[in-house]
Amino acid sequence: MCGIAGFFYKNGESNIPLGSRLSAMASVLGSRGLDGTGMALYGELPDGHLALRIHLESNRFNEKAESDLAISEITSRLEKLVSINDIQYTGNILRIELKEVEDNNDIEFMSKVTSVIEQSGTELFSIGNSMEIIKDIGPAVELEDYKVADFLGSHGLTHTRLATESRVDICYSHPFWARPFPDIAVVHNGQLTNHNKLRRSLQRRGYEFSTTNDSEVIAVFIADQLLNGLSLEESLTESIEQLDGTFTYLISTSDGIGFAKDRFSTKPLIVAENKSFVAMASEEVALHSMISDDTDLYEPTARAVQTWLR
Fold first, then answer.
1. CATH of segment(s) 45-129
2. Residues classed as catalytic
3. pTM (2 d.p.)
């Protein structure tokens, strides 16, 4: 019974911060799960820059000196690959901004960066020229330290988690990054019955996973479809045929946002759309604060797929 939500400014950023929109929806959707809350936020970095969000495990680095040592190890390894522009450390999440990256879509380079970072026992939450994933255990209020409500951007996802088939752990909270692809994330409400089979198939092709969560499989599956030349809408349509189980999921890329529902429409989703934005959430109450007379409100049917691109 997790809560999912997404928001997309049709004309780019607005005077109302993207993070404020997502925070408001996440707070309401906390009634659907308080085991974890997360966001995938899309802004703009200069060309050739990448933002990394890295989880430093609190049970391994519980003293400042240990955290500083871990950060030093990570940055020294990264500097052998690429230049570092900025470093920030808040809570358990380290943000490193890289610069002078020749190709922001070089999957081989992203894999090298991931490997270098996770040699220290840390986990890379996201890589992106526009996307940054921030998540933590507990309700939406736990993200306030990261100042997500002030984040200016064009679109994003949020998720409130009720743990069912996997443990309560920050690494199992949503959104899930489609490693090693930059700027792709998924939030999901439901359960997949064939995720192990799909994961093994993707692993045989060289993909790696950080968890056993079924939702992470969706993220990598869609990224692989995009790599093979399908559009986002075509990839979502294909997923309805390939994914077994119950699901409504939202996906975001640097270009936009979309959703897909299973063939039985077992998991809810309400969409609010006007000329300025699209918002969607598991419950209509999460959308009430942004609905006006010019807003269309509708509930997608079974097998529905829809995308909005910049």
1. 3.30.70.260
2. 2
3. 0.94
